[in-house]
Design goal:
With about 210 residues, the protein is mostly helical. It contains ten helices and no strands. The chain has helices at about 1-20, 25-45, 50-60, 65-70, 75-90, 100-110, 115-130, 135-155, 165-185, 190-200. Helix 6 runs parallel beside helix 9 (about 165-185).
């Protein structure tokens, strides 16, 4: 009983210390390490060829531990979608309230889809979603949320009731540009692309500084 009581005290003291230092619990850290390993495996081998054994080896953890923290492949895909959503939200949070159309367009084109690893993961998930209806719905909800976030950032043409449609167009441009870059297809003039994107957000023919009504 004394040994059990001592273990209980030590365990809880450790949890309190981690909380006071703002450090996530060990289980959460381990889960993040395993998910990061899962991402690396997908980039290297593709999702179809990635096994739990691959993830365990990449993470340097026993396979049973990987299954304990992450679950099966379906659970891992769900967790991966959550991570992508968190990244998108973190990128969009960089834009201050009331940003103009040019600032918002630059953020979407140069930051939101600038991570090659994230783009590779998105392509893998899109392929899976063709045959997985629950995943398709999750991804659709994720991208719809992204479009609405872009429309709300600032600079989108809400006066004409077209904020969501213009945000849709610019997010589509950003996706296309990211995948073209993956293939080595690059614009001759990125400044021109940014200007076009800002012009779309601002309402087509309107000035990107919103100086015209």
């Amino acid at each position: 009983m004394i040994a059990e009581a001592r273990e209980y005290i030590v365990t809880n003291d450790k949890k309190l210390l981690e909380a006071s230092l703002g450090r996530p619990p060990v289980g959460e850290e381990r889960r993040e390490e395993i998910l990061a390993a899962f991402e690396r495996c997908i980039v290297k081998k593709g999702f179809a060829k990635t096994t739990l054994a691959d993830v365990a080896e990449e993470a340097g953890q026993p396979r049973p531990l990987v299954r304990h923290f992450i679950g099966n492949r379906a659970d891992m895909v769900s967790a991966l979608v959550d991570r992508l959503l968190e990244r998108a939200e973190a990128q969009l949070s960089r834009s201050p309230a009331g940003s103009n159309a040019q600032h918002t367009a630059d953020l979407i084109l140069e930051a939101a889809f600038a991570n090659p690893t994230t783009n590779a993961l998105i392509m893998e998930l899109w392929y899976l979603a063709l045959r997985d209806e629950p995943l398709r719905k999750r991804l659709a909800a994720l991208y719809e949320g992204l479009i609405l976030e872009v429309a709300a950032l600032g600079g989108a043409d809400e006066k004409a009731g077209m904020g969501r449609e213009h945000a849709f167009a610019v997010v589509s441009m950003a996706f296309g540009a990211a995948f073209f870059q993956h293939l080595g297809v690059l614009p001759a003039n990125i400044e021109a692309v940014r200007s076009v994107a800002a012009n779309i957000l601002a309402g087509g023919g309107r000035n990107t500084n919103n100086s015209k009504g």
